[in-house]
């Protein structure tokens, strides 16, 4: 397995030399500066690739192995194969990536909102901070800040009472924070920042789109792009929904093993793969993570290895340390190692630690939410230790 590290580009708080110090060898990055829907050019990809792969004297080399992500425009999610211009632009970006020899592209198909958290710096018992999804705060936002049409019917009387208490305890600053966290796109998001009125309008645009229709739109997208990826030797890896359930009444279609099975059955191309994210899938108690890894082993080309801890009734959760929480990371890695041993060296699974705690000196620095250096370094070291114990040291 190959050790990856998500790098947000030349302005990121973590520099490439600092990535080298973590022991990671494979970079996960994207052209975040390019507007969603605009085709990437080969020149732009090569410029970023040269930045990553041009090795200074006496430094260890880095390889850009995973693009995370080429954002899929909202029109594709709403219109499927009818969004021809947007799909053609996406294919052009894919071809630019392929021309540069980058073998893996990660993407997601979450409508309106990407990965969602209510708190970015929730203090945990060690004094470090973690990202958190608080169901009561989320319901308070949905019901009393966004005031979404149909929200009232989506919650029980008990939920609404608790949400009101949560809302009434919020200061103006708290309201601004949760609004920004939910509507303004978190780091690496593949959705656009929205104002509250824009957010309501975007939700309204999904009226009548249920899970079956959204899945069909994804299948139509894959039918267009997977042959191109397969012909050029690129693996497409679909990231799970985060959290893996409906938000704001929107359908989500990459939350369970059966969701993925439906997509692989519909589009059997070998380029149609999975980003195996233990943290996202692990939020659902009914997702058997080792079984999912075993079932779809040949489709897994990229892995986000992190742990989440479900709270209370299972709807709230926070990012735990990588070897804690509700993910049996040893069992997961046994499955991935078994698959990895059957692969050529240049086709092994790229993994990265993810969503580390903000801790130690990072508490005194400006960090990218979810991506501080020290917390991710701790996670990578722990994952590396398991791999050594399994007799499969990472490269």
UniProtKB/TrEMBL annotation:
<dbReference type="InterPro" id="IPR036237">
    <property type="entry name" value="Xyl_isomerase-like_sf"/>
</dbReference>
<comment type="similarity">
    <text>Belongs to the mannonate dehydratase family.</text>
</comment>
<keyword id="KW-0408">Iron</keyword>
<comment type="pathway">
    <text>Carbohydrate metabolism; pentose and glucuronate interconversion.</text>
</comment>
<dbReference type="GO" id="GO:0030145">
    <property type="term" value="F:manganese ion binding"/>
</dbReference>
<keyword id="KW-0456">Lyase</keyword>
<keyword id="KW-0464">Manganese</keyword>
<dbReference type="InterPro" id="IPR004628">
    <property type="entry name" value="Man_deHydtase"/>
</dbReference>
<protein>
    <recommendedName>
        <fullName>Mannonate dehydratase</fullName>
        <ecNumber>4.2.1.8</ecNumber>
    </recommendedName>
</protein>
<dbReference type="GO" id="GO:0042840">
    <property type="term" value="P:D-glucuronate catabolic process"/>
</dbReference>
<dbReference type="Pfam" id="PF03786">
    <property type="entry name" value="UxuA"/>
</dbReference>
<comment type="function">
    <text>Catalyzes the dehydration of D-mannonate.</text>
</comment>
<dbReference type="GO" id="GO:0008198">
    <property type="term" value="F:ferrous iron binding"/>
</dbReference>
<dbReference type="GO" id="GO:0008927">
    <property type="term" value="F:mannonate dehydratase activity"/>
</dbReference>
């Amino acid at each position: 397995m190959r050790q990856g590290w998500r790098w947000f580009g030349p302005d990121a708080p973590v520099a490439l030399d600092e990535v080298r110090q973590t022991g990671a060898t494979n970079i996960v990055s994207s052209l975040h500066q390019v507007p969603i829907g605009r085709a990437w050019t080969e020149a732009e990809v090569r410029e970023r690739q040269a930045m990553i792969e041009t090795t200074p004297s006496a430094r260890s080399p880095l390889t850009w192995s995973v693009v995370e992500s080429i954002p899929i425009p909202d029109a594709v999610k709403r219109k499927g194969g009818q969004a021809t211009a947007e799909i053609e632009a996406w294919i052009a970006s894919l071809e630019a990536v392929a021309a540069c020899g980058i073998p893996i592209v990660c993407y997601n198909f979450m409508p309106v909102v990407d990965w969602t958290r209510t708190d970015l710096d929730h203090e945990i018992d060690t004094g470090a901070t973690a990202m958190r999804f608080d169901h009561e705060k989320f319901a308070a936002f949905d019901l009393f800040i966004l005031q979404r049409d149909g929200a009232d019917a989506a919650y029980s009387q008990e939920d609404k009472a608790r949400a009101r208490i949560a809302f009434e305890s919020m200061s103006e600053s708290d309201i601004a924070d949760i609004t920004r966290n939910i509507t303004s796109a978190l780091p690496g998001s593949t959705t656009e920042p929205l104002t509250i009125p824009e957010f309501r309008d975007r939700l309204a645009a999904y009226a009548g789109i249920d899970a079956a229709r959204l899945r069909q739109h994804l299948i139509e997208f894959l039918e267009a792009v997977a042959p191109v990826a397969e012909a050029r030797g690129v693996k497409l890896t679909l990231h799970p929904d985060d959290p893996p359930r409906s938000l704001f009444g929107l359908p989500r279609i990459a939350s369970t093993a059966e969701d993925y099975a439906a997509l692989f059955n519909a589009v059997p191309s070998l380029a149609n793969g999975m980003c195996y994210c233990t943290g996202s899938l692990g939020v659902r108690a009914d997702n058997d993570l080792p079984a999912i890894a075993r079932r779809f082993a040949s489709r897994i080309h990229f892995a986000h290895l992190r742990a989440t801890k479900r709270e209370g009734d299972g709807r709230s959760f926070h990012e735990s340390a990588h070897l804690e929480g509700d993910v049996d990371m040893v069992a997961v890695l046994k499955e991935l190692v078994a698959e990895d041993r059957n692969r050529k060296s240049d086709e092994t699974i790229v993994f990265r630690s993810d969503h580390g705690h903000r801790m130690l000196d990072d508490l005194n620095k400006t960090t990218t939410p979810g991506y501080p250096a020290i917390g991710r370094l701790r996670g990578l070291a722990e994952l590396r230790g398991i791999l050594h114990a399994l007799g499969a040291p990472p490269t």
